[in-house]
Amino acid sequence: MPTESNPLATLDASADFAERVLSSAVPVALDGWKRVVRTYRRVKAPLIAALCPTSGRREYPFIWEPSPTERAANWRHTLERIAHGASGWEHVGDTALEPLAPCASWFAHHALTCESLALGSVQRDSRLLRLPGVRKQQSIPRALAAYLRAERYSDNAASAIAGRAAELAHGNATKGTLVLSANIADLLFCSESCNYSSCHSLTGCHRAGPQQYLADAHTIVAYHHEQRRQWKGATLPHKLYRRIVHIDTAHNSALLMRNYGDTMPTEFHQQLRRVVAQLLCRLAGQDDSDPKWVHATGKDGSDHITQDRPRLAYIDAQACDHVQLVGGDEHRAEITLATVVPCPGCDDTLDDAGALVCEDCAGGRTVCDDCDERISDDDVCSTDDGVTLCEHCYSQRFTSCCHCGENELSREDCYSDGNGNDYCDDCRAEHITTCTHCERDVSTDDVACVPGDGSDAEEHTLCSRCVRQHTTTCDRCDGRYHDDDEYSARGETLCPACGSARLDTLYAALTRSPRWTRSDVFGRASMRAHWCVSVHGSTDHYSALPLTTTLEVNHAS
Do 38 and 121 reside in the same domain of the chain? Predict the structure, then answer.
C-alpha cells in the first residue's frame, strides 16, 4: 500500500483518506460519501475558516521544562499506572499482571531515590545497584526490566513491561505539538493512532459518534502528539492526549469534555484553554492576540448538551472545563448535537451508534433488481443480461442442470422431474423418458423395457413402480412381461414370446391331427380374445396368430 506523507495537509486529501479508510471497514457509496462531505463542509465552514481554510486545523508548539520535583512525580505516576494495570493489559508476554502491583510500587517508592526519579536514571545511592544487571546512569525502564528478572519474571515479560513504562513516560515528555482541529480525518479518527482506548474507535460500541461530530456545527477535537507513525498506509500524528471541544458561537463559550490519554502538566491545559479562547475571539470577529476569558473546571457538562435521536456520540461530560469570553452575553455553552447524520453508504441517515452505516447498508451497498433489498458484494448474483439479484431472488428465477451443470437455466423454460432435479433441453432428451403405463416422466436410470404382444409390437417402457405393480415373471423363461400381455395355458402364465411359441406348436399340431379337441389344445375355453378356439356346428374353427388364419377341420372325413 502506498504511503501518504500527510493526508491532513488539505481538506480534500483528508476527505479522500477518510473515505479510503472507511471503505475498508464498511460499504461506502460515492453519492453517500459526497453527501457526508457536503454536510460537513456546510456546517463546519465557520470553524474551518477560523482555524485554517486549507486544512481546517491549527498546530501550536508545546514546550515544557518541568522541575525536578515534577519529573519525579511523573515517573512515580507512570510506575503506578504500570503497577495497577492502567496500561490496559491483563497479561504481558507469558506472565499475568496480578503480582506486578507490589513489585512496581516498591520499585517506584523505595528502590529509586528522588534524584533518580528526577533525572530518569539510576543514581549512586539507589538500592537497585545491588541487583545483577543494574548499573549507574542506567535508564529507569532498563533498571525496571533487570529488577523484574530478579523477581523471576521471564525475559519477555520483563522487557515488555519496561517497554510499556518507557512509552507511558514518553507521553510525559516535555516537547510536542498541541492541535486544534475541525479536519474531517482528525474528527472521524479521533480515537485511532493513539495510546488510549475509546468507544469512538472504528470498532467501539459508539463507533458512529465521530460521524455525528462531523454533522454538527459545534464540535472540534484537541490533541497532543510528539511524533508521527504509520496508520492505514499514512503517516499520522500519534495522539498521546485527546479532548473533544464543543464551541457555542452564540454565547462566545466552549465546553471541553473529558481528558483521554496521558496526564498532561498544568501548563498544557492552560495553553489549551488559551487557544480555545483565541478561537472564540476569531469566531466573534475580535482580536485574538490577548483574549480575556473566564474558566470553570471540574463541572458536569451533561446539562449543557442536548442530544436527541440519533444518540450516536457518547457524551462523557464529567469533569468538563468551561471557557467563556469576558464581556457581552456571559453564558455557559449550550450545545445541540446534530439530529440528521448522513449515512456514507446511501442517501439515508445513521440510526445506530454501533454501526458506521445505516441498517440497510450494513448488509451491503448493492440493491437487488427484484426485491429492492440491499445486499453485500459477496452475495451479489449477476445474470448474463446484466440483472443484479440477491441469492434468494436468483434461486427463484434460475437453476442449473443436474447433469451437465449448465447454469442460469430459467425455471420457466427448463424441465423439472418433480424430485428437485432440473434439466436442460439436451439432457432431458438424453436422460428423461415416459412410462408407457402410468405416463409419468422418469429418469432413464429408473426404467425397464419389457416385450410387447407380438413379434412386431413395441416394447413397454416402464418405471420401476409400474414394473413392480404391473408385470409378472414368465413361468418358462423367467422374463418379465406386462400383465395385459399374459398367456395362460394349463396353469402356466407365459410372456408373449413363450405364449407365441406355444401357439405355433399347437398350430402345427392341429394341421396334422384335426381330431384334437379344444380342451386338448388349450386347457380352457379361451386364452384371450384374439388367441382362441371356436367350434361352429360340424366344423371346428381354430383361430391362431394371425387372426385372419382359420383352420377348417371336417369331422365327417
Answer: no
Find the distance separating the first CA and the last CA of the chain, reported in whole Å. 116
CA distance 64 to 468: 99
Which positions ≥6 away from 418 have C-beta within 8 Å?
none
Task: Note if the bond before 61 is cis, omega within 30 degrees.
Answer: no
For 24, the domain range is: 11-63+174-336
The 8-class DSSP code of residue 170 comes to: H
- At 271, list the grid cell: 495553553
Q: Say if CB 539 and CB 555 are below 8 A apart.
A: yes
Pairing of strands 447-450, 460-463: antiparallel
pLDDT > 70? residue 556: no
Last residue of a domain, one of 170, 195, 226: 170
Q: Which amino acid is at 166?
A: A
Q: Count other C-beta atoms under 10 Å from residue 16's C-beta.
A: 17
Set of cell numbers at residue 158: 520483563
Of 342, 86, 66, the C-alpha closest to 215 is 342
521 vs 515: CA distance, rounded Å: 11
Strands (E), 284-365: 293-299, 305-306, 320-325, 335-336
User: Any residues with CB less than 8 A from the CB of 269 and at least 6 apart, and which?
Assistant: 321
Cell of 114: 528522588
Does 178 lie in the same domain as 158?
A: no
Quick one: angle between helices 30-51 and 11-23, nearest 10?
140
Nearest to 379 by CA among 407, 22, 389: 389
E strand or H helix at 481 = strand 480-482
DSSP output for 342-374: B-TTSSSB---TT-SS-TTGGG-SEE-TTT--E
Specify the 3-state DSSP secondary structure of 425.
helix
Count of positions (residues) in the chain? 557
In this structure, are strands 398-399 and 388-389 parallel, antiparallel, or unpaired? unpaired
Helix (H), strand (E) counts: the chain = 15, 32
Residues 199 and 94 in one domain: no
373 compared with 259, residue with greater pLDDT: 259
Enter the C-alpha cell of residue 446: 429408473
What does the alpha-carbon distance between residue 358 and residue 471 come to, in Å, rounded to a whole number? 67
For 24-61, what is each residue's pLDDT tens digit? 888 888 899 999 999 999 999 999 999 999 999 999 99
CA distance 69 to 168: 18
Nearest to 92 by CA among 165, 37, 41, 22: 165
CA neighbor of 281 nearest in space, from 320, 242, 328? 328
| H-only helix segments in 55-119 | 68-83, 100-106, 114-119
Q: Which helix or strand (DSSP H or E) is residue 526 part of?
A: strand 526-528
pLDDT bin (cut points 50, 70, 90) of residue 511 is: low
3-state secondary structure (DSSP) of residue 175:
strand
On whether both 191 and 147 belong to a single domain, the answer is no
Greatest extent of the chain over all pairs of C-alpha atoms, in Å = 156
- How many domains does the chain fold into? 3
Q: Give the tens place of pLDDT for each residue, 409-435.
A: 777 777 777 666 788 878 887 788 888
Q: pTM of the predicted model, to two decimals?
A: 0.56
